[in-house]
Amino acid sequence: MSGRLRIAIGSIFVGIGVMGLKFLAYELTGSIALYSDALETIVNVASSIAAVIAIWFASRPADSNHPYGHDKAEYFAAVLVGVMIVLAAGTIFHSAWVGYHTVQEVDYSPLGLGINGLAAVINAGWALVLIRYGKRSRSPALEADGRHLMTDVVTSLGVLAGVVLVVLTGWQKLDPILAGLVGLNVLWTGWDVMKGSISGLMDEAASPETLDKIRQVIAAEGEGALEAHDLRTRLAGKLTFIDFHLVVEGSMSVEAAHDICDRIEQAVGKAVPGSRLTIHVEPEHKAKHSGIIVL
């Protein structure tokens, strides 16, 4: 079992534990704001399950139907997480609306608020684990899950601060208003997660920094070639697909040109982990004199 899959499975158990704590806090207080906070944890668990399925599928090797691998499955999971976050926001808005127009007994017990605070601390710690591991392993699903959890932490802290204001001011209407603000925050998070994942599904190019690194490696390691041009990249989960045209002298043997390609491929692989290169070799009359000049 890969490290990414173990982390993703761990998110399910953490999410279930936090969900139990938050619903217990709601039962002890009756606060609509805490209820909306608890509802979001259902989405956390569902998104963690989606991430496990996506990471498992993405880890499968390339086959005849998917010769480039299955890494893009993680982007679909991240989009699904975004959709579920938006649906959760709708549920929260409904609860806030009902709470604003009905009178409910609320008991802001220190125990209930303390339990909700403990859930926020657990979420914060696990969110940092997911974001750091997701970035290091280039896992869109794990990073999206971590960003969602971190937003949940900010939401929880905001709700707790607001509930304290309710206690101090005695203004009960503030409780459902806080729930509505939670819904707006959740809605924005859902959009942000989906937007980032859609970029991956649309074959977004590597960052300018990565492109510069690739150009430098080609220029330094392409001794024997004349130039490289039409450099293109696209991201697919942890993989970076790279292709370009390499111009060599027309009289150069196939074996010599292949040796240059091998040298460039090995150097780029070290500079850009997870890279997959396709190099199209061309004779010198195809040179554009506008690409990467080989040193």
Write the layout of secondary structure elements.
Elements: H1 3-29, H2 32-58, H3 73-101, H4 110-136, H5 140-169, H6 174-201, H7 208-221, E1 227-236, E2 239-248, H8 254-271, E3 275-283, E4 292-293
Parallel strand pairs: 2-3
Antiparallel strand pairs: 1-2, 1-4
Helix pairs in contact: 1-2, 1-4, 2-3, 2-5, 2-6, 3-5, 3-6, 4-5, 5-6, 7-8
Features:
single chain; about 300 residues; alpha+beta; Alpha-lytic protease prodomain-like; Alpha-Beta Plaits; 2 domains; four-stranded mixed β-sheet; 4 strands; about 10% strand; zinc efflux antiporter activity; cell membrane; transport
Task: Kindly describe this structure.
There is one protein chain. This protein is α+β, with helices and mostly antiparallel strands. The chain folds into two domains: 3-201, Alpha-lytic protease prodomain-like (Up-down Bundle), CATH 1.20.1510.10; 208-293, Alpha-Beta Plaits (2-Layer Sandwich), CATH 3.30.70.1350. It has helices at 3-29, 32-58, 73-101, 110-136, 140-169, 174-201, 208-221, 254-271; strands at 227-236, 239-248, 275-283, 292-293. The protein has a four-stranded mixed beta sheet with strand order 3-2-1-4, with helices on one face. Helix 1 runs antiparallel to helix 4 (110-136), helix 3 runs parallel beside helix 5 (140-169) and helix 5 packs antiparallel against helix 6. The two termini are 44 Å apart.
